[in-house]
Specification:
about 575 residues, globular, 6-stranded mixed beta sheet, single chain
Length: about 575
């Protein structure tokens, strides 16, 4: 055979195998699960007209949920273009997408609040309703929906603003081109600044990392190439305009923050799905960097598959925030402890009119006035200085993004003041580093004692970092009964266990293994090798935060110890 011919065949087979290993749509699925077009059919009602990529497998239940959640209900009266978000539960037993090999790595490096969802999808909607005499109903009604596991609300809503108007003009060929462009995007890697081209526009975004300083402004990576056209820089991929979301409840911010911290059941009744979804997402983000561990639905309808589960009166309301627009819900949620009823923002002079706290008993009629319907009494006092500062900002026409930055900083400092004493106490439960020795099982982490923690508050409590007065102890006691404490503690416990495991690995690598084996029997040495191998395997499987050089060092130690054994044993150990 001609040597050049054989080389060509080898190259062809190599490129074929490379193509086979490159999963179709793998880059696309790093960002999106699929793109759906939902339309209104006179006979069927809401129906999915198109799903892209075509081979995406959505269950019938998921399709039905997407259909109902993609249209504002008739009470909203949304004419023109409307954007909002929803979140739906994935069907049980769903097989994960092709990108899930990378999932662990992304979630390890991303901030808690931006991790990929494993059990829910987000839906980002661009809905258009305009008069059209050629349609029987007299209106053109259609939604373009991006379905994703990523909570990048600002990025995906900006993407929709670019592609949806064009899609409504040019339809499917335009959508196919957009999806092919997204399939060329680099994956979202925490800490990196990415250029994402779509329809002649380059969106430049920075993916936040868990190593970013909370509340800080991460330095943007300089782009070496001169991009043409110049990129559209998005300042954030996920942060909402908090001031716009909270402008009619500014004087009740303390109460809303406490309700979120404690995972209390809350219904947000809003005049539109836009206000509903933005308010719910803003509330969930208000306790950042603490992760909100309860369920939340930015937009919820009576057709939702969880409607019966969440509105049953035979048991206490679940720990969930629901954003709704249908006034029918007022009757349904009369038994709920907290209802936030929002109207269109009204101005009182220069200032947005603030809603009042009202008794739950007054929540009866469909024309219920805006207000917070609750009997909840806050543990902490209001921060009057913050409210004055924000109201003065309104009078001075301070830009909304500056007002939002003030609000975000206040909420961050409040959450940190609450969490720092807990983190400090947790650190005291760790075993001392000198007690971790190579030849013994690592010492246990001491159990969390609520009473012991409460005893630390007098000298190391929130008063060290916060000027807010009130019943901090009562707030902690209530927090201990919430799903947010459970979620926070489980995560920290796992991290602490991994830290002890890492310290043990380092101690083993610093020890003289060969000297230890000199007066040991073969059985003891084999037992040591098997245990070390198990440790090595666990460190790699669970991605323990240890340097690869350390693991390689341990691997070489294992080989050295094996080579000190008789040849028959060496053969057996190399095989297994």
């Amino acid at each position: 055979m001609d040597p050049f011919e054989s080389r060509r065949i080898k190259l062809e087979s190599a490129s074929t195998s490379a193509a086979e290993t490159c999963v179709p749509w793998s880059r696309f699925s790093a960002w999106l699960e699929c793109v759906c077009v939902v339309t209104f059919d006179l006979e069927l009602g809401q129906a999915i007209e198109l799903v892209y990529p075509h081979d995406v497998k959505l269950t019938e239940k998921e399709k039905t949920s997407i259909c109902y959640l993609s249209f504002p209900d008739s009470y909203s009266g949304c004419l023109g273009d409307t954007q909002f978000s929803f979140r739906l539960r994935q069907s049980v037993g769903r097989v994960s997408g092709s990108w899930f090999g990378e999932e662990d790595k992304y979630n390890r490096d991303a901030p808690l609040i931006l991790q990929k969802e494993l059990a829910h999808f987000y839906g980002y909607v661009y809905f258009r309703q305009v008069k059209d005499v050629s349609v029987k109903r007299g209106y053109f009604q259609k939604s373009l929906v991006l379905v994703s596991r990523l909570p990048y609300v600002q990025l995906f809503q900006s993407l929709l603003q670019n592609i949806a108007p064009e899609y409504f003009e040019k339809l499917e060929p335009c959508l196919e081109a957009v999806c092919n462009e997204i399939d060329q995007w680099p994956p979202p890697v925490p800490g990196q600044t990415l250029n994402l081209p779509v329809m002649g526009v380059v969106m430049q975004v920075r993916i936040p990392s868990k190593d970013d300083k909370p509340g800080g402004s991460p330095t943007r990576q300089g782009q070496k190439e001169n991009l043409l056209p110049a990129p559209m820089v998005l300042p954030t991929i996920h942060e909402l305009d908090l001031f716009k979301c909270f402008q009619s409840v500014l004087i009740h911010l303390q109460m809303l923050w406490e309700l979120m911290l404690l995972g209390e059941p809350l219904v947000v009744m809003a005049p539109s799905p836009t206000i509903s979804s933005e308010t719910v997402l803003a509330l969930v983000s208000s306790i950042s960097p603490l992760r909100y561990c309860c369920d939340f639905r930015p937009y919820f309808t009576i057709h939702d598959s969880e409607f019966k589960e969440y509105t049953t009166r035979t048991q206490a309301p679940p720990n969930v925030i629901l954003g709704v627009t249908n006034p029918f819900f007022i009757k349904t949620f009369q038994s709920w402890p907290h209802v936030l009823r929002l109207g269109e923002v009204k101005m009182s002079g220069d200032l947005p009119k603030q809603v009042k706290v009202k008794k739950l008993a007054k929540l009866k009629t469909l024309d219920t006035k805006p207000g917070i319907y609750t009997a909840y009494k806050t543990f902490l006092h209001k921060d009057k200085a913050l409210i004055k500062r924000l109201l003065k900002g309104i009078q001075r026409k301070r830009p909304s993004e500056v007002q939002s930055a003030i609000l975000r900083r206040h909420l961050l400092e409040l959450t940190q003041s609450f969490i720092i004493p807990l983190e400090r106490y947790l650190a005291s439960l760790m075993p001392l580093q000198r007690s971790v020795t190579p030849w013994k099982t690592p010492p246990q982490i001491r159990p969390f004692s609520q009473d012991e923690f409460m005893g630390t508050l007098d000298h190391a409590g929130p008063q060290l970092t916060s000027l807010l007065k009130g019943d901090w102890m009562g707030l902690y006691k209530r927090f201990f009964r919430s799903p947010n404490f459970d979620g926070w503690y489980r995560l920290r416990q796992r991290e602490m266990t991994q830290k002890v495991e890492c310290l043990h690995l380092e101690a083993i690598c610093d020890a003289d293994l060969l000297s230890w084996t000199k007066d040991k029997s073969e059985v003891e040495i084999v037992d040591l090798i098997l245990k070390l191998r198990e440790k090595l395997m666990r460190a790699r499987k669970h991605h323990l935060p240890v340097k690869e050089e350390l693991l390689e060092k341990l691997e070489s130690y294992i080989q050295i110890v094996i080579s000190s054994l008789p040849e028959d044993l060496q053969t057996v150990l190399h095989k297994h």
